[in-house]
Fold each of these.
Amino acid sequence: MHLDREKILEAARVVFGRHGYRKASLADLVRPLGVAKTAIYHHFPRGKEEIFRALIDREEGAVLGEMEQAVASVADPRHGLRALFLAKVTHFQELRRLLCVPRDVGEEVAALYGAHGTTFRERERSLIAAFIRRGQEEGLFRPGDPDRLARTVQSVLNRQELALVFEETPEVMTREVDELLDLILYGIMKEGYGDD
């Protein structure tokens, strides 16, 4: 068997998805590959931590690609935010189902992921800011600093990700994304805040 980084990452994806980062050992990672631990160190000299980081980088690339593709297919900025966020949570929900990720493992991975400063969040925020700018130019969104508004929108959406990924069905997840975006885009007040 020819061992390369991709084969190691595929095996690691399944092991981390089922057992979590802390419970997964290097022995767990090499078992499905049928190789010795030293073979792993040839590709990942820092071991489990380096494998986990490489796996996150790979998943980020895949998700960003799906998000950018979804964004490119939508002209209306209001619908663009929906397409962007749905592409992201749908990817993670499908991954959770494929790997049979239990909730506690999802929480652990989300916490570990959140602890890493990544370019993923910056690129995601940039996509959101682009939609906000376009919405402002079209007179759909209120004026304001698009980068600051994007940071706020991203923060709200990111706090809901884990709950959405663990929804029972894609239909329920989509309905909850729509309700959340409706609140973000239109609010709950009939009049503007401070209007009497």
Note: Residues 48-72 form the longest helix (25 residues).
Amino acid sequence: MQQTTPATSATRTGAALIVGAGDATGGAIAKRFAKEGLVVCATRRSADKLQPLIDEIRSEGCQAYGFASDARKEEEVVKLIDDIERDIGPIEVMVFNIGANVPCSILEETARKYFKIWEMACFSGFLVGREVARRMVTRERGTIIYTGATAALRGSANFAAFAGAKHALRALAQSMARELGPKNIHVAHVVIDGAIDTEFIRDNFPERYALKDQDGILNPAHIADNYWHLHTQPRDAWTHELDLRPWSERW
């Protein structure tokens, strides 16, 4: 696991671990939590791709560190959590935001790709969730948020692998919430139902992207606001599942 900058100089305060801090939703969530004073620990498989996000957060006077880590590898996940807890601070919130939305006909799907999608979208969520939960239970506090998708609720044609993984991730979140809630750990699952304002949507679905001016696609910053709200909810009114979609999206 490679780290973009040594973390030993960081002030020991609460950390927000964003697993899958991409250029849109994950990055927006990282910036939102950094703005609120948490030390952001952002991960992707490539540290180089993280550097612009880390630089942007630091330019605003906030603290952020980037880690190259493969969330499918147990040994890398364990080391990641150990390093953050030792060198940066206690993980107060973990956001799991890995995608793996790869369409394919069931007639052409390969066992290798099906398994890889499950590893990325579900198994890695288990590994990271287990490791942060083990630390959180000793402190009797914490928030774990999983990013879901429409596929967590219904399987569409040509998305058997993705739907299976997202259904499983939702079940994981439900089980963890029921076990960890009494230990004062808030586990939430967010269904993102609709196109998000990303370069991918802009370049590949121009007609959908044209709806941006009509608030017809999701703004990553607004998604991030909802994640922060989940983290700050009082425990007498915790939300477990939050459904986010543009006003125009069909149910």
Note: Residues 111-139 form the longest helix (29 residues).
Amino acid sequence: MNKITTNFSKNTFHGTEETIAAISTPFGESGIGIVRLSGPMAEPIARRLFKPKKNQSLFISHRFHHGEIIDPSNGHSVDEVLLVLMRSPKTYTREDIVEIQCHGGYLVLQKVLELALAKGARMAQPGEFTKRAFLNGRIDLTQAEAVIDLIKARTKEGIDIANQQLRGWLNKEMVSLKERLINHLSLIEAHIDFPEEEIEAIPQSQMKQDLMDSVQKLEEWVSTHEEGRVFREGISCAIIGKTNVGKSSLLNVLLKQERAIVTPIPGTTRDVIEEVLNIHGVPVRLMDTAGLRKAKDFIEQEGVKRAKERLADADLILLILDGSRELDGDDLEIILEIKEKKKIVIVNKKDLPPKVSLEEIKKRFAKDPLVSISAIKNEGVENLKEAIYSSLIHRNIRVSPEHLIVANIRHKTALTQIKEGLFNAVKGLEEGTSLEFIAFEIRSALDSLREMVGETTNEEVLNRIFDQFCIGK
């Protein structure tokens, strides 16, 4: 498979001779919408379309200019705009960039984009602006991935983790590790290639200690992935139980709004209702499902079917039992079905006289958290939120340069491979293995490191990463 090498010098900014254009703001109506161009034709295209309010023969880079976009075919004004030209290399892509700030109507933006395309630009592909920033050496691949994480973040903690990566904290650690590994490898290979020369002896104890320290750091970063992934991607959480145990009431009280219809009639919820809740920075996609019982009609049967599908896919189950009624066959059937699932057991309706013993419930669910609540009176709900968070996050997460959080599975995989290579090298040094073996393991670790930051990355991986982006970023 083809490899893409991104070892660009600081003076290499062209990347491609094509100029791309796209609408960089969401479709719809808004106060402002932006059409963005990047490439060698960005400024010439802007000059053909833009008529400044004041006579200006020269654009000043990184300054706003007030004027109109004119349709060259008839001389009519399309929109009054602010235009900013940013000349390379001090731009997002390290190419010339033009951003045209229009009024945020879809037709206006589409017309400005069409004029730019007619004058020599081509439509940008998803993520192509960020891809050019990566290919032109402005950011590494981990930082490029952080851009999409920042756009998609749904909580402050998700933003913090994405910004940590975007600021290059992980990249700095990788650059430092790479330099040390290259130094070790150079010394080893000199001894292998020139055994007859009087080369300074390899300080094996110092090398072994440095590699072991690196292994421990890598283990720490890899160990943060599960929590980091939860903050980055969130979890799906299915509210499960038989009819009329209070599933919809719980959804409403968690969301603090009347999202689901609540009635005393069994089987009111027919479809799966989904909403996202922020629990201490974790995006939790709550799914209120139809009551699991033998369906009375085709519509309820479909609702039960969908509930079971969500049950199978959910990361966490909220099993609700009605504390004011004794457990029956429907409860026991549900309990058996979710036996192996990660779950929190909720005994609802604590405001009513109890008909089921909490001790009995604890015996049935010895390994699962148990919370007693009254959804209708909003009692015990904060304890439930704490239980949800504690079941997902098992450490104090603090985002800082000293505490890297690895949220991306690609990064976890690469760091694990680096760690394994260095561990094997340490083991080889301890056992007196040949220098060729030590060099091979360090080279393997370097290969994984270079692929992680995008110095050598196959085209399939790049396409998969940048296809996640929206057009215009």
Note: The two ends are 27 Å apart (CA to CA).
Amino acid sequence: MRNRHRSAIRIAGASIASLVISLSGVLALSVPEAEAGAFSIRLEAGPQPALSFSSGWVVTGSRTMTLKGPSTVYGSSRATVPGRGVYLRVASGSLAGWWVAEGRTSYRPGIIAIATYAPARAVQLAAGRYEIYRFDSAGAVTSAKALRTLGTRLSTDRAAVVNGLRHLRVASGSLAGWWLPGTLAAPERITCSAGSPPAGTTGRMVRSVPAATREIALTFDMGGRLTPAMSIIRYLEFERVCATIFPTGAAATTSVGRQVMAEIRSHPELFELGNHTERHCNLRDGGGGTGCPTSRPSAAFVTSELRTADATVYALTGRHTAPYWRPPYGSVDSALVAVAARAGWPLAIMWSTDTVDWRPPADGGPTAAYVAAKVVAARTAGGIVLMHLGGYPTRNALPAMLTGLRRAGYAATSLSALFR
């Protein structure tokens, strides 16, 4: 009985260099494996549910660990469990001997479980917007771009799991070599939207958009520290998650800032822009840095800060930032809102959830697990989450955050999507 159950599933034995199976000359499956007991499993920050199984794949136990940050452990097996999907057996650490579900928060890094289609097979794309990728050998996104179609068929010569998620490789034409998320039966579209903000000139502060049920906006300020910025942007692209980015003009012209602006320019299907002023001065009270007035700035100064930043960002992205702006430090009042509205930015975007991700861990800043749990627990209809492209735990918080929101029935998207 035990052998029959085990032969009914695929187990990635780590000592196998490759496994090739031919089915009627159509499919060749090649699964490169690491040394026995030595392949890596990345466990993302946040809750990590795990199961134990009998030899017949009946669940015999369960437990959940919460990791403050991501962890890399060793694994010994990868198996398709009947009725449950793919699981990885952990061989080291506190979860040794337990199985974790392969997916966004627990996976073998890189491109694995490669199935080669010979001859190539067709995948039907329904009308919609898709995101396609190029990966390096480690599974990191090196390029991403949108694919819009009214309905088409693509030829694919390979399927694989990339960092826990299934993808298909395009076999021919101008897209040859690019990877499409999903399976032959279910290619995955972009389900969020960005751009086309609301019209109007009346100034107001916005902390949420309650009419947007089951949607929550992810917003990222961009100024000062930018070390993880491109990693965050790449992860949002990989997950096909829409977001609103608020750069300062000064940050946009830095080396990393220019890279981020180039990605935003290339991905209007995912990213939209708001204005975070040119120099991040406190526009209500004064102060904030070099070149900032020490007392409350004049209306002319506020207008200049917004328009100069917009010109800087437009030169790099080809897109304007109106009607959204975010007051530096969250310092705002009705008079300042009115000044910004007259300058062309009527919507002062605040937030319903502040992740405080700008604070370094050494100064009591939050862990990645805390940030993810806070966003999921505080979710509300049309909520607005404040994060930073330079946030310390932000990149590592995103997998558990997005997974938790999806499980709760919420879609992460842009500000404009909430208003629609």
Note: The first strand starts at residue 22 and ends at 23.
